[in-house]
Amino acid sequence: MVNSQIKKPKILVGFSEIAGYYVNLFVGLAQLGNEVGYINNRYFKFQYNEYKKYNHPFLNYYIEVCRKFRVENSFFNKVLCGLLSPLVIFWIVLKYDVFILGSDSTLLKYWEYKVLRFFKKKIIYVSLGSDTRPSIMSGIYKDDSKGGQFSVSEMVGNFIQTKNKVEFFEEHADIFINYPQHAHFNRRPFINGMNIGFPTVMREIEPDQKNLKGNSVRILHAPSRPNAKGTAFFRKIVDELKSEGIDIDWVEIVNKPNSEVMKELILCDLVLDELYSDLPLGGLGSEAASFGKPVLLGGYYAEFIKTEISKDAIPPSFYVLPDQIKETLRMLCLSPELRENAGSELHQFVSKNWNSKTIAQKFLDLISGDFDRSWLFFPEKISYYNGWGLSRTEAVRNMEET
Asked: Which Gene3D superfamilies does its entry note (predicted)?
């Protein structure tokens, strides 16, 4: 009898990067022995470099050209990136069979999606929040270039634009991955992102390293959007806890390369992430978990998560209502044993369920069609409307202004 093997599909991951999600997924797919390519065509804020040894040299060159255009503002590279983009689209269409794309990413004003559909390529679209979340439910405006003022006209324009884009991606994607927390514009059943997880590169847990203050509790906060993520509130409650006599070493880093965040994660005792998160664990939290560090974050979805998400898919972070943040932080500061046990439990969860290879295999199951049907979520079952990055009071005020 002749053994026949099913040919592995060639996979392209792109065209964006959000907190290491796509690059870690790409690495996981490569480590499982798949022929895979990676493109990040956006601003390269956090400098994820691990992908290069797995990626095709031509794609690495294209990424570097576009990086110099976006980061270094090189006019020559702007022209070169523009000229290369149609060629890259033509090349990847010929080379790859499956395209894992997401976060409103495009190389050529979304024309590549039409080209991929024309050539019957399989598309998996992944949303991580801002590309599908209704603008009335988002606090992203707090950190924009206009001083963080809520604009009704911009909200309405973004609301319509986002709705139209979700319809476009639903039309062109074979599989849509989204989260019930921000999938209000989806009209077709989608894969619940909570059942997939956040691809994470597992790190070696370093031996305990004493910080300079000895017995102080070193708290790391590393926001990409300080206003939307509650940085001012966190500073306030940390000062209040210090005034109670709790010895805290507060470390705050904003928009630094991923390598710097990694160094601080090794040194910290716990991570204080977001105030109004609609996820129980995001990119920073999953990286903290890889080092065995406990993670505290707030969000109104904490009231809904256990009714919408299966227990085994919920990471054991300290995900609490916003008004429970201070008390939970006090409890963590006062109990080294609690921090250690919580960090170990979170590390075990991410290591088992969210490591890059495990999640890469889930994507391979989606590609083959042999996936757990419980991953499907139906839009009519969405029950959460509080949004991300803003309090309920702010959300109500914004709606009253609309």
From this structure: Glycogen Phosphorylase B
